[in-house]
Automatic annotation (TrEMBL):
Keywords: Flavoprotein, FMN, Isomerase, Oxidoreductase. Belongs to the FMN-dependent alpha-hydroxy acid dehydrogenase family. The active site is at 235 (proton acceptor). Signal peptide: none annotated. It holds the Pfam family FMN_dh. This is L-lactate oxidase. FMN binds at residues 211, 233, 266-270, 289-290. Residues 36-339 form the FMN hydroxy acid dehydrogenase domain. Glyoxylate binds at residues 235, 238. Its cofactor is FMN.
Amino acid sequence: MDYKTLLDNAKKNMRTCRVCPQCNGRACRGEIPGVGGKGNGLGFIRNYDKFRDIKINMDTIYNSEEIDTSIELFGIKFKYPVFAAPIGAVEINYSDLYTDYEYQKAIIEGCKNAGIVGFTGDGAKDEAYESPLKVIGKNSGLGVPTIKPWKKDEILRKIKLAEEAGAIAMAMDIDAAGLALLGMQGKPVAPKSAEELKEIISSTNTPFILKGIMTVEGAKKALESGAYGIVVSNHGGRVLDETPSTIEVLPQIAKAVKGKMKIFIDGGIRSGLDVFKSLALGADAVLIGRPYAVAVYGGAAEGVELYTNKIGRELHDTMLMSGAKSLDDINEKMITMCR
């Protein structure tokens, strides 16, 4: 399978996603259920557009060495600093070709084959969270189950299930507090106080990541709560319209907490060049959402592996052309902000 075949298959198999040449949020704006951004869709669109304002400085005068794209997180070495973002309710938002279990199985197995790891989702139905744990357990714990901000007792129950599955890490997408669809399905979510988060995170020894941080203040509260890391994320523009883009707020957040906790980012990342830009502005690694859904619907686990290696090759080539021999070499001097 090649990438063009993957895209052609996805177009046939996806009900709502148009598999646009550029996944920028314009064609699907406001389509929820579906894959669009909330309201006018400007949060999703801005996430994508602001990456276009960042240019990469080319420099090929340096001592040539083998380029290392690997990263160590959770005590494990991964091939690339790229991870599949958690996506749930695929039958509602994408197509009924896959159940949530089948979708997450393709993500976990494809990511593992590519040398990275996938985050799995959660939903109003228990099986949306629990069934992927079976796949994680069968794959040496290589998955990051992601819990919605339910009531505390429900969160603690799901933490125990993730521990039993041997998950290498777990997360909570606290930005999902704005997902009205969950309330409509009889399973409301809500914001969490710093005190609640501290209690939740202290209940486990497994690394815990808070997804949905968009301010310095939020990052500091996450740090104080004991989180292993954060994901700078606005939930793909699906919970609040007209937010800043994630790449816009990343530098100030990184300045405040870099080195004290791990920093991930998602939102609008579409290439290895975007991965490079994210790392140059302070991220340790990235999460990618919608394109991984396209990869699943275009080629299941094989499509996930193919897409991951495509992004990895693009990152490798960008490092080659900018003088970065390892991820630690990537810095702000290697990019130019053009506004």
